[in-house]
Write a structure and sequence with these properties.
mainly beta, 3-stranded antiparallel beta sheet
Length: 69
């Protein structure tokens, strides 16, 4: 439920859940861009160096806290 992701500036990574993602909240858009790819996947793109975090909520109200470096 709590995870850390490391990205290099301008690098992208796909984050995938086995359940549908209902909402994404709380990241710093200057550091990280989050783009929905499907109901289960998000593309994370590091815009610049920094640290941010966001919260995912899935279709069953499970909450995941993701910290991105």
């Amino acid at each position: 439920k709590d995870s850390r992701v490391s990205l290099i500036e301008l690098q992208t990574r796909i984050l995938e859940l086995s359940t549908k993602i209902r909402s994404v909240d709380g990241h710093d858009p200057d550091v990280l861009t989050i783009i929905p790819v499907s109901n289960h996947r998000l593309r994370l793109k590091a815009e610049k160096s920094g640290v941010t975090q966001f919260t995912l909520t899935d279709e069953f109200d499970n909450v995941y806290n993701i910290e991105v470096f």
